[in-house]
Design brief:
The chain is mainly β. Helix content is 0%, strand content 21%. The protein has no helices and 6 strands. The strands form 3 sheets. A two-stranded antiparallel ribbon has the order 1-2. A two-stranded antiparallel sheet has the order 3-6. A two-stranded antiparallel ribbon has the order 4-5. The two termini are 30 Å apart.
Length: 107
């Protein structure tokens, strides 16, 4: 995951609808400011199915005063590429990037 470190500071992960997700699934020591890695395995060869639109996890950020406007949090393939497999077959992963609204920009 990637975001602009001039706009956001990562605080913690929040609720997860993906079974078994804990703080241990996230790279606690990001390789660079504005990045966070994530790795998860269902432990089952058949994988896990979720309904469309379900958030697999949530992240909590502090909005910095120096940030202007909304900040995006995007799925990125750096430093680790995205990969989803079921029974050792690579499957399509459709990601929906997130937006953190800067409350200081609202009237």
């Amino acid at each position: 995951l990637r975001w602009d470190p001039a706009q956001l500071v990562f605080l913690e992960f929040g609720a997860a609808d993906l079974p078994g997700v804990t703080a241990d699934n996230f790279g606690i020591s990001p390789p660079a400011p504005g990045t966070l890695t994530f790795s998860w395995d269902s432990g089952r060869s058949a994988g896990v199915s979720l309904k469309d639109g379900v958030a697999i996890f949530t992240l909590c950020f502090e909005v910095l005063a120096s940030g202007k406007g909304d900040a995006t949090v995007v799925f990125d393939d750096q430093p680790t590429p995205r990969e989803v497999t079921v029974d050792a077959v690579v499957k399509n992963f459709v990601a929906k990037d997130g937006v953190v609204r800067n409350p200081g920009d609202r009237e």
